[in-house]
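Mods, move this if it's the wrong board.
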Amino acid sequence: MILYPAIDLKDGAAVRLVHGEMESATVFNDNPAAQAEAFVAAGCQWLHLVDLNGAFAGEPVNAAAVEAILKACDVPAQLGGGIRDMATIERWLDKGLARVILGTVAVENPALVREAAKAFPGHVAVGIDARHGKVATKGWAEETEVDATDLARSFEDAGVAAIIYTDITRDGAMKGPNVPATAALAQAVSIPVIASGGVSSIDDLIALRDCGAALNGAISGRALYDGAIDLREALAALAA
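Not the wrong board. Structure tokens:
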């Protein structure tokens, strides 16, 4: 199971939110590229990037920070936030991004997801962010009546590379991931699932790894910045 260190970008800095609320942002590093290099030096295989401003604006806002990370690091990176048209998808992939994450458009324009997954095989993931099982969009600011599992199943034949499933109520709260909901979603689809939200200890990572579903990976942010998870130790534990 891959551990994806998260770098959430707000106003050019690496931050973490609680429950996705922008006013709760805590700045952990004003040099995101340096933060990315530290994660790579510790041995991570991937980076998970989120343009928080972009998620609200509907277009990339922290492009300079993302580009600096891509130039500084030689591991693949995936990015979500404000990616809502083919031109933006193609532009990011051309800049060296390994995978784009489509969230809001997965609800509002699923045809775009299918078109992108067909045009760029292996490079398009779907971000499903849920609060009490229902999908939220536009930086988690708008709630829908769309069921998270139903949305995941709707892309079974689309050829998407992965689903990033985030339980918003756990995100940044350091209270552990929603293991049952994540496992249930992963068991409902054949698409690789990456768990996100609430991972706050190595025990949480082991619980996800051993949840009964073959998860592709898990994303952790605040716990790495706070020191609750030592990245080297976590990677060694998952490799054991």
